[in-house]
């Protein structure tokens, strides 16, 4: 016999008892709060984590003393009480104390049938959950004496002893089995997967039963006051006469709706006073527990008893609505409403989502590159996507990988699936910018371009025109159509983001390339545009040919003529961006990609180009080949192009300045920001700056109008970070392009990382995909070095991050800590970034969801 350790075994829950979440669990604490609110909660006793731990080890509490806390002959229930309701726990056991003698008395009190049912249920629960007997032998239901006898006999046959009659022994065995179930490996692993620490404790609550069976109105039910998907006020739940526990939720026959309902009988009609009482307690718990609670109740002989209450489990959109409405009703402060919402949960509100409760036939999995879900017919080319959009048919663009040539196809598609790629590959970045659901790096697909088919891992073959669904939130490709939840950019969401903006102490801008992106950015409350990738503007139908003419120009004059045509188009682009952003900062990055990205690669495309340029096909082909590079991402791109073909940047600078003058005429004064990409040396900045200053002076003179602008550098090569001190001398701002900086720091192609990233993360080579979450140790150190050297040279230097990490809550924490002025991310990530930044400003720690 193990020795008893001295501690308080149990406590009767009274308004003043010493009950805490940390020692007794959330359910025990919540029950104490219900008792303090004077709800009709039956007498309840709480066993602490220590006590339960001892029970599992074979040291029993003083059982007679526990029983003595209740009325003589009371039936009892035992429920788990862990710190967090999501961690689960063993199921409740009801009707402890039932034995032959109690059964006989109960027949007199409430009649034979209910007495038989209660006893039979207890025998069954005890046999299955405590004695661990085969459930098949204890399935029979019924309220006759014969069924009860059969259950008692089955128990005796299996256990070689009669069903235990001593309530203290019954209680002891129930407590032991629940305590041991909690300490079992499976239960531990399950709760650890939900975030519980390995040594999380379990408390138990023992409660006097209010019998839901008997002659006067008796039964049990569950009520909540909001819809769990929308969060809107709505009384939902069920009540079942002559029942116990949560039976009303699982029974079909004879259940009552709570509120009056055309579909059947309701508690409101059947027991109006009790219904009104429940509504009152719902309101009291909302105001005093500051939460939307789900209440489990029993009606015993016409009297209401409240057995338990837990926080209503809810979707993210419901969580936002509940938090906002509690704050608007002055029940919680706004700061608390903000802290109650996990930033990433907002993604669920911004896009359509696959209904988590619906069926899904997943045929492939990959990297969840851009959230949301969409259904459409498979297309294998951008041309087919555009044709499909022209017919008004939703389509899913399936590609090996996407290139800038696919931009128009991506615009036309409802979602994108690629075989290759990672978090910052072309498809991923563009899809996030467009708010398109996207799954990349699905490497076990076999894509056959010739017969336009897609073979998937389980052997199925999909063809062009087949309907599939892309779930970019979970990284899944699903066969056919599935049930969706629409986006929820409602008043509650807007209120929450408005409050977040008020407390935020780091700016959040959007990466926006087109007027449509800028509109989304504004709509999502961005503080401006942190990165406008101008190259995307050249992929429009009318512009691509002019762009190609410029690339193919043989003489400076020919090039100037082509650029002359592009100038008004760019001016128009920038004017619209400035107008949409009405005075907010707009940072325009000068042309970045290698020129050959604008050239066709198929024979057909080359022929078309030859026709358009009126050149022999062989010349065009030779020229295209001459522009090819072994490693274009490290080749002639960014500022290197700006220095070797300076006319391009000059044209862009002129377009920016002329647009500045134009937009300032009718709206707020514009101070454009011009950013030079891929810098690695101070001299590059000097050369570009001299030319841009020259263009600014020329435009000022020509138009007789003065304007301001800010020239800055995109720090995306390790050398630029290391030499930030000297680069800063010519820069008004430094914006860290962490996509390329990560690529170059690791020497890891951002377009190919998807192939092995899964294996790398799984084997803990990297803790996470560094293109997704900033690598604070390596890339982060470069950021800190760059920031420190830049600020030392120029204390008022504006610092920011404009790589994809700008939208990642952990990376935002790093940037804020490092004193950055703002982060910039895809428009659809702005709300998440904003709330994450608000949490940081409020010092919110990861909030644990408790019972209330
Ligand atoms: C970057 O490199 O971090 C960046 C923002 O630019 P891009 O993704 O266009 O290369
Ligand atoms: Mg870059």
Automatic annotation (TrEMBL):
Q: Which residues form the active site?
A: 426, 802
Enzyme Commission identifier(s): 2.7.9.1
Give every PEP-utilising enzyme C-terminal domain span.
494-840
- Name the source's superkingdom: Bacteria
> Which residue range or ranges hold the PEP-utilising enzyme mobile domain?
394-475
| A molecular function GO annotation | ATP binding
Name its co-factor(s): Mg(2+)
Which residues hold substrate? Answer: 533, 589, 716, 737-740
Q: What residues bind Mg(2+), as annotated?
A: 716, 740
- Which keywords has UniProt assigned to this entry? Kinase, Magnesium, Metal-binding, Pyruvate, Transferase
* PANTHER family noted in UniProt: PHOSPHOENOLPYRUVATE DIKINASE-RELATED, PYRUVATE, PHOSPHATE DIKINASE 1, CHLOROPLASTIC
Similarity-based family: Belongs to the PEP-utilizing enzyme family.
Described function: Catalyzes the reversible phosphorylation of pyruvate and phosphate.
The protein's name in its UniProt record? Pyruvate, phosphate dikinase
Q: Which organism is it from?
A: Actibacterium atlanticum
């Amino acid at each position: 016999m193990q020795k008893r350790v001295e501690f308080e075994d149990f406590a009767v829950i009274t308004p003043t008892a010493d009950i805490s979440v940390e020692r007794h669990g959330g359910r025990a604490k919540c029950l104490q709060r219900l008792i303090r609110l004077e709800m009709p909660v039956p007498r309840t006793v709480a066993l602490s984590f220590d006590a339960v731990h001892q029970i599992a080890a074979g040291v029993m509490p003083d059982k007679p003393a526990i029983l003595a806390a209740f009325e003589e002959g009371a039936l009892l229930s035992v429920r788990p009480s862990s710190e967090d309701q999501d961690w689960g726990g063993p199921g409740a056991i009801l009707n402890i104390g039932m034995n032959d003698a109690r059964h006989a008395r109960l027949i007199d009190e409430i009649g034979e049938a209910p007495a038989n049912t209660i006893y039979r249920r207890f025998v069954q629960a005890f046999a299955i959950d405590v004695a661990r007997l085969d459930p098949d032998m204890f399935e029979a239901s019924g309220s006759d004496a014969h069924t009860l006898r059969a259950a008692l006999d089955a128990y005796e046959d299996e256990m070689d002893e009669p069903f235990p009659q001593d309530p203290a022994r019954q209680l002891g065995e129930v407590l032991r089995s629940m305590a041991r179930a909690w300490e079992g490996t499976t239960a531990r692993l399950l709760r650890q997967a939900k975030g519980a620490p390995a040594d999380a404790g379990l408390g138990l609550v023992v409660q006097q039963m209010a019998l839901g069976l008997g002659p006067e109105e008796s039964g049990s039910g569950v009520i909540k006051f909001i819809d769990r998907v929308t969060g809107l006020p709505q009384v939902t739940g069920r009540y079942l006469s002559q029942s116990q526990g949560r039976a009303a939720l699982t029974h079909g026959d004879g259940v009552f709706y709570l509120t009056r309902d055309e579909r059947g009988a309701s508690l409101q009609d059947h027991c109006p006073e009790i219904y009104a009482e429940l509504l009152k307690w719902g309101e009291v718990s909302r105001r005093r527990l500051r939460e939307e609670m789900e209440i489990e109740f029993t009606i015993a002989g016409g009297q209401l008893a409240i057995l338990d209450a837990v926080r209503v489990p809810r979707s993210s959109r419901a969580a936002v609505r509940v938090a906002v409405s509690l704050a608007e009703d002055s029940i919680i402060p706004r700061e608390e409403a903000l802290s109650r919402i996990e930033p990433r949960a907002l993604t669920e509100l911004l896009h359509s989502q696959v209904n988590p409760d619906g069926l899904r036939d997943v045929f492939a999995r990959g990297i969840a590159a851009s959230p949301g879900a969409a259904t459409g017919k498979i297309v294998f080319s951008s041309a087919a996507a555009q044709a499909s959009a022209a017919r008004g048919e939703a389509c899913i663009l399936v590609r090996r990988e996407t290139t800038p040539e696919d931009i128009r196809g991506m615009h036309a598609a409802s979602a994108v699936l690629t075989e290759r790629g990672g978090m910052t590959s072309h498809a991923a970045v563009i899809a996030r910018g467009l708010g398109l659901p996207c799954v990349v790096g699905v490497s076990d697909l076999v894509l056959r371009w010739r017969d336009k088919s897609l073979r998937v891992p389980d052997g199925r073959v999909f063809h062009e025109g087949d309907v599939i669904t892309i779930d970019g939130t979970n990284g899944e490709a699903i066969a056919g159509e599935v049930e969706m939840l629409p986006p929820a950019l409602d008043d509650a969401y807007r209120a929450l983001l408005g409050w977040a903006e008020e407390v935020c102490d780091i700016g959040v801008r959007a990466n926006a390339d087109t007027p449509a992106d800028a509109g989304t950015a504004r709509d999502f409350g961005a503080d401006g545009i942190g990165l406008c990738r101008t190259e995307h503007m050249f992929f429009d139908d009318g512009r691509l040919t002019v762009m190609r003419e410029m690339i193919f120009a043989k003489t400076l004059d020919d090039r100037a003529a082509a650029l002359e045509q592009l100038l008004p188009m760019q001016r128009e682009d920038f004017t619209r961006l400035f107008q949409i952003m009405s005075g907010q900062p707009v940072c325009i990055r000068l042309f970045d990609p290698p020129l050959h990205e604008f050239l066709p690669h198929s024979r057909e495309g080359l022929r078309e180009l030859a026709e358009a340029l009126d050149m022999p096909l062989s010349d065009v082909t030779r020229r295209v080949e001459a522009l090819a590079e072994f490693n274009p991402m490290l080749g002639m791109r960014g500022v290197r192009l700006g220095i070797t073909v300076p006319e391009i940047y000059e044209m862009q600078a002129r377009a920016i300045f002329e647009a500045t003058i134009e937009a300032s005429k009718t709206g707020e004064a514009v101070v454009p920001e011009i950013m030079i990409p891929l810098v690695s040396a101070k001299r590059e900045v000097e050369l570009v700056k001299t030319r841009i200053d020259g263009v600014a002076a020329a435009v000022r003179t020509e138009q007789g109008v003065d304007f301001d602008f800010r020239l800055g550098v995109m720090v995306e090569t390790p050398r630029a970070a290391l030499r930030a001190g000297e680069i800063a001398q010519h820069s008004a701002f430094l914006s860290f392009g962490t996509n390329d900086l990560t690529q170059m720091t690791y020497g890891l192609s951002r377009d190919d990382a998807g192939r092995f990233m899964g294996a790398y993360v799984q084997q803990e080579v990297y803790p996470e995909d560094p293109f997704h979450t900033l690598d604070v140790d390596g890339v982060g150190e470069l950021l800190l070095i760059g920031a420190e050297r830049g600020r030392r040279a120029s204390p008022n230097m504006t610092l920011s991050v404009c790589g994809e990490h700008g939208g990642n809550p952990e990376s935002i924490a790093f940037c804020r800590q490092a004193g950055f002025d703002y982060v910039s991310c895809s428009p659809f990530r702005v709300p998440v970034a904003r709330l994450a930044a608000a949490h940081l400003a409020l010092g919110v720690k990861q909030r644990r969801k408790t019972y209330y």
